[in-house]
Each structure stands twice: as C-alpha cells, then as structure tokens.
Design brief:
Helix content: 40-55%
Number of strands: 6
Oligomer: single chain
Number of helices: 6
Strand order of the largest sheet: 2-1-3-4-5-6
Shape: globular
Amino acid sequence: MPLRTPHKRALIAGGTGRVGAAVAGRLRADGWAVLAAGSKDGDLRTRAGAAALAARAVDELGGLDLVVHAAGDGFTPKPVDDVTEEDWDAALDVTAKGTFFLAQAAAPALRESRGTLIVVEDVAAYQPWPSFAPHCAAKAAQAMLTRVLARALAPEVRVCGVAPGAVAVEPGQEERRAAETLLGRIGSPEDVADAVAFLAGADFVTGATLVVDGGRLLKSGRVQNP
C-alpha cells in the first residue's frame, strides 16, 4: 500500500485569537498552508457566513485537509438572575451553531481529502460554572457535536475535540488558576496547539476529546470555580 501524502491545507476559524493564533503558528511551523480567519473574515453566527468562509478557504488553499474551529464568544461572567437572551445568543451562536454550520460547509472538501475536523472545546463543557451558565451550556452542546459529527462524517472524515483548561489566563489570575490543577501550574495556548497537531496526525482517532487542563477535571477538594 502506498504511503499517504501528509495533509497540509488548514482553515483555522478563530485563528486570530490567542489559542487560534498559537494553533496557526504551530501548523505553519509544521509545513501547513494555513488560513487563520477572524470574525472579520466570516460570520460564523449564520449558515451563509460559515459557507462563505469554507468556500474562501477552499479557493485560496486549493482544498482542505484540516479545519480547526477555535472561534467563540459570550464568555462574560454574570449571575444567573442577570442573564439575558442576548447573552445566550452570544454564547451559542459562534460556539455551537458555528461549529455545526462550518462543519456542514467544509464537509465536501474534507471528504474529498479524507481530512480532519478538530473542535476546540472547553472544560466548561464538563463543569458547572454558575457565573458562566450560557458559556457552559454552549460548550456542552459543542462537545456533543464533536461526537455527532464524528458519526455523521465517518468514515471519510475524522472529528476530534480538544478541551483546554486554564491556558489563556487573565493577568493576576495565574496563581488562583494554577491551584485548580493537579500539576500546580497554568498552561499556554501552545499546549493546545500541540494537542491539535497530534490529533491532526492521529489517523485512528475520531469522536474523542483530548483534555488539556493540567488535571483540573480530576482535581479533588474544594476549588474556586468561576
């Protein structure tokens, strides 16, 4: 059987944010041709916007072997009593709706290349944070979409998730967030990029989420959750 040619054309939705930019930089260093798209490059809140972004990527790159959905919105702390419909829309539109419609739009190109979709999730999908109710719900929906899409797009396309913990911490919060992990330290966007690079080449992995949180989900005892 001939060796497969390495897949080297990638669209990073959310590629201008801290995590997305690190993913784009890592892939470029590994020899990928990358379109790192920000919110100005395509409105993932709509099906038409997701389709336009996927079409642009296929046109500029000549096809797609990898799509990384690292876009998100609505990460704003609010007590449950103060959450509005606009807060829900902000959290769900890009995170959940955007994941689905970008996958739908990119599926033909990924099927053709037998490519991979990687969804940047969040440990918030698995932890109840009262100050971030819409965000937690949106990320839980996104984590389920990783599994739904893995079944829907198989066998031609692999779909995997990466669930970061504290990797893009606000200044002054480092010590607090480090105490919430088993490793006693925070991570970095580059840690997420390493996980994406691994999954991009892990040809027998699909429907799985790689948690990159320093052991936060396993941390015992009382921690200061958001």
